Amino acid sequence: MQLPRSGSISLVTQGIPKNPWPPDSDTIERCRAGERDSIALVIRSGFPRLIAFFIGAGVPPSDADDLAADTCEGLVKNISKLREVGAFEAWFWAIARAKLRTWIRKRRRPGRFEPVNAPGNTPAERIVENEEHAEIRLAMEQLSAKDRELLWLREVEGLSYEEIGGRLRSAAGTVRVACHRARKRLEVAYEQVAGDLEEPG
């Protein structure tokens, strides 16, 4: 059984504005200096991306909104402590991952999410509108948070191994191997889910 191209899960990214990302170095410098307009610009650009990231990781949309807000609050409180402008994006996503890990510890069993029942007109709901997308969603839920993050960055956001390595502070070669293994695990999970759904009840 062939796993559908993972571009089908990129529907989660619909609605993300085309504001420049990551922000340019001048904008980050102004943020570090506490300039409110620049901070607001970064938040406007980053917030919908955070929403998409959290939903893609299996977080219900209502909680994804809260996590995105918490991440932005962390940005506002700590941006002045950012040592290197060029490290902003890795720093930004590190905050997001920390918020996600805290959410997992508080709301879910380690390494596993419950299925998401998204309300109407959400990106997550568009993923599961047909059987193929539903199977991908169920398969993704069986993966570890780390595997989901790697697949999200590589297959949905379309980042290179070098760019993913920059976010996760890992070597590109290590990321390449990890992504390959994550996709293999997704294929196995997808075949299992699809097989279960095809069995007569």
Task: Characterise this structure.
This protein is mainly α. It has one domain. 65% of the residues lie in helices and 0% in strands. The chain has nine helices and no strands. It has helices spanning 25-32, 36-56, 61-78, 88-107, 123-127, 131-141, 145-156, 161-168, 172-198.
Question: Characteristics of this structure?
Answer:
201 residues, 65% helix, mainly alpha, disordered C terminus
**Helix fraction by DSSP (H/I, runs of at least 4):** 55-70%
Q: Globular, elongated, flat, extended or rod-shaped: what is the shape?
A: globular
Q: Into which percentage range does the β-strand content fall? A: under 5%
Class from helix and strand fractions = mainly alpha
Task: Work out the helix count.
Answer: 9
User: H/E series, N to C?
Assistant: HHHHHHHHH
Number of E-type strands: 0
Rg over CA atoms, rounded to whole Å, is 17 Å
Distance between the termini: 21 Å
Q: Please, what is the average pLDDT?
A: 75
Q: Mind describing the biggest β-sheet?
A: none
Compose a concise summary of this entry.
Helices cover 65% and strands 0% of the residues. The chain has 201 residues and is mainly α.
List the helices and strands and how they pair.
Blueprint (H helix, E strand, L loop, with lengths): L24 H8 L3 H21 L4 H18 L9 H20 L15 H5 L3 H11 L3 H12 L4 H8 L3 H27 L3
